[in-house]
Request: fold
Amino acid sequence: MRAVVRSALVVLLVGLLGGCNSVVQYYEDVDDLGKKIVADWKELPEVTDASYRYQHGIDSGQQMDFEVVIRAESVSNEIIDKLKDIGSRDYWQSTAYDRGSMPLRFAAYSSDNPPPTQSGPDTAIHRAGLGISKEVGLEKYGPRPTK
Reply:
């Protein structure tokens, strides 16, 4: 009897783990999008650092968190708008856009008050989502690339 119960538990566990992989999985084009946005931001002279974290899994779903550090002397609404525009453009031009509503969260920091390394108070100078509607994307950036 114990062997039957143990076998049933193993089959159930394997099934659950297999189901997790098929429900929420890693997508290379989404990861490539994060790399592209960060690389484009780092090309700007106003930016000292940029990074992203791509989360995927049964508990977190699909989401990307971006952090960018702007030179203290360059912090302005114009550079924030430029960073958001670059992120939204890159998202529009990526096949990751076709994956549906995936949160792209963006936080900007000043170089004189960078993101906390562990825990601590939030020092972000700006937080927003990145993305663009189909209508605005088409008007602003043109047709989306075909696969």
Observations:
- The longest helix spans residues 2-23.
- Confidence is low (pLDDT under 50) at residues 7-22.
- The two ends are 54 Å apart (CA to CA).
